[in-house]
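Risk register update: the risk that structure generation would not scale has been downgraded. Supporting records follow, first protein first.
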Amino acid sequence: MSIVENFERKALFNITRAVALVCVTVFLLAVFGGAMYAFSVWKEPITTKVPAKEIVDMIKPAESVPQSAQPQGAQAPVDQTPELSPLFGFRVPFVLQKYASNENAQHILKNHLDEIPVSDRQDYLDELGAVVTEAEAQKLNGIDAINKYMETKTKRYADAEGKRLQKFEALKLAAMSAAGGLMLVALFSLVLVLLAIERNTRPSGGSGRNKSAAPSEGLPT
């Protein structure tokens, strides 16, 4: 057996096998890590809830203004036929009714409701009612609480949409990483299989050589 064949059989094969095993292990760990990252991002809760205390804490330093003021320049209250009200079909909390008793204020509130999913609109009103109740209990201005809630809620929905996009991107990245990692694992596993086949089927040195026949001494006559 030549030096090259000896090196190939004893050293190169072992080195190649070790490298392939390390690569397979690294790629499997990468696939597992990507899956764990995607899972951690996906399980992170997305909420648009705005606690009443959060709004109250925001408006506490503000000075109180007369309660007769209406949200964002609304006019004085006027009687509205229920069927003609922009809020017809919603259950308006009692504490909000004095703030949304005129058409201008109702349209302002309805415009905000139109920006959120239909399934969340009644919860929006109920949450806003809780905010105003807490504000009035703290002797704070209800109009300030309403305006601050609307501003905060809009930002909360924007943040929630950004988190949803982040989850989608994380899942897409994890899927691409998993597909690429598994393909590389399969490739290096194939290398290991081919190396094993090649080593086990290679003839040993001298095995293919026929021994020289002993010199004939002649047949007896």
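Supporting record for the second protein:
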Amino acid sequence: MNGRGITCPAECVLCGAAPEDSFHVLLTCSIAAQVWQASGLRNSVALAVQECDTAAEMIFHVLARLFQVQCSLFATILWSIWKCRNLRLWQQVTETAVQVYERATNMLDDWKHAQESRKNTADSAMHLDSRPRSVIQERWTKPAPGRFKCNVNASFSNELNIVGIGMCIRDAAGDYVLARTIRFTPLCVVEIGKALGLCEALQWVMELGLHNMDFSLDSKLVVDAVNRTARNYSDFGSVISHCRQLLNISLHNSKIEFSRRQANGVAHALA
């Protein structure tokens, strides 16, 4: 029985040849081994298996030694193997190693196309940005009297394989109070990076002991997800769930809002 009270088989549902844990399912199971062989990452995974004791250690071990394009494929295959396991367990659907690998590569291609589309949209927005500022600029708004506002922004560097987070707190008069920047690696999906930025900002404000805080960020997806009560068991949903927990612990009077433009200086702090 797992942590959610759901009864699961003790043996691996894919091969039935060993006790099931994340290390076995993702790395040493015969089905997983075939997928890694098809991907060209078998040697990297095999080396990590020899040197690491847990799945988490292995994942970071491999990511630290792969090129960026390989990291994306590696992460996507991990997800696809886990999906294969869940399909077998909960829906009695059996997949071949080829199907598992193809799902990963198809998902990665879709993600790349989405990023290209996002870039084209951003390029179009930059073109619009050349118009007079009075036409398109959305002004930063002060928080209500007695409140603070923390603007949060994230930047993503493909070259450095890092995500940068910038946070800037201002008071009700619009005066600067405090700012912070952090960086982490490896690069992740944009909305997960923005959600992690909000999570870091919430933790920071909680440690500062500040209350009556309005958090503003430029991701409507993240803002809507935090303000909803629906459960989401994806990686994105896990970060959102942690954000809600931090809000419930000591930030009851805080608000999360969407803003197309961040406070001046936040984005530049990430450079």
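The CA atoms of residues 3 and 131 lie 55 Å apart. On this basis the risk owner (M.S.) recommends closing the item.
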